[in-house]
Amino acid sequence: MFANFRQSVSDWIFRATVPEAPPVTLSQRRIFILPTRQGYYFAFTLLLLLMASINYTLSLGFLLTFLLAAMGSVAMLHTWRNLAHLRLRPGPCPPVFAGEAAHFGVTVETPSRTRFAVAVRRRGEEPVFADIDASNVTMLSMPVPAPRRGRLACGRMEIFTRYPVGLFHAWSYFDFGLTVIVYPRPDTAAGPPPTHSRNESEEGIPIPGDDEFNMLRPYHAGDPPRQIAWKALAREQGLLSKEFNATASSELWLDWNDARGADPEARLSALTHWVMEAERLGQGYGLRIPGMTLPQGRGEAHRARCLEALALFGDPKPQ
Integer distance in angstroms from the first to the last C-alpha of the chain? Predict the structure, then answer.
């Protein structure tokens, strides 16, 4: 009941609709504070003590009542100060696969003293607590389920504290417009990438490498010891070095029409698995999906472009 009332009040007061430019500093006007359930019980108990002290003219009762009221006022001040002047910035939001937990990162720093039991949460999710050290920037990572592919928006987040005694709940809102790209879930049953999409003109091209022995050649200064033909040296054939060849990795096209599946999501899962496999094997690969063709390449940046294209295929609804 109290939590719903507090949420309604804060939604009415804080109505920011556009992402905020970092850093966000929690100034006096951004911090709201209300009693917790324990705080309301505490206030009700003070009221009973005051009425009993008035009714029976108890001097010690008045002393106890006003002492507890003063302690409650000091607790409210310290709860507010635990959030005051904190600086917030967006943190890393790495992409994930569908079915995993996305992590929205927020960095928090304090200009002065250490802050205790500060929490960040997204509406409907469990909070993440941390102590904000005065000498370091603290990273808070909010896990959020990512059930399907697409772009997962974080939305507005709440930072709050109930330190030191839990009688008051101080909080503020911020929204950096954080998003996470959710890749399709890889379908391991799709098998290896189709071999008929390979560029046969580049199959079996020998290049320098260390896969297969090719020949012995005269030793060159700087050759590593593992390449020296020690057996040939023992047979008094002179100082020779081993030369190895590798085969150039074949170029590969991952095509929408080669993926099998009853619906587009199944094809996207198969293509995601093929991208992961081609990258693992060190093969150059390109991607063809309806409305988009990504040229052949390899490496982490190319892998990320391909997976992002699969994640955003068909412009899925924001989560």
Answer: 28
pLDDT at 3: 59
Q: Is the distance from CB of 296 to CB of 253 less than 8 angstroms?
A: yes
Q: Is residue 26 part of a domain?
A: yes
d(CA 182, CA 154): 13
What residues are paired with 308 via a beta bridge? none
CB 306 within 8 A of CB 288: no
If you average pLDDT over residues 223-246, what whole number do you get? 72
Please write the tens of the pLDDT for every residue from 275-312.
999 988 888 899 999 999 999 998 999 999 999 999 99
Q: Are residues 44 and 74 in the same domain?
A: yes
CA torsion 75-76-78-81 (nearest 10°) is 180
- Reported as a single tens digit per residue, the pLDDT across 176-193 is 999 999 999 999 888 888
Contact 65, 46 (CB under 8 A): yes
What pLDDT is attached to residue 258? 87
- Domain containing 221 equals 214-247
| Shared-domain flag, residues 148 and 169 | yes
Count of domains forming the chain: 3
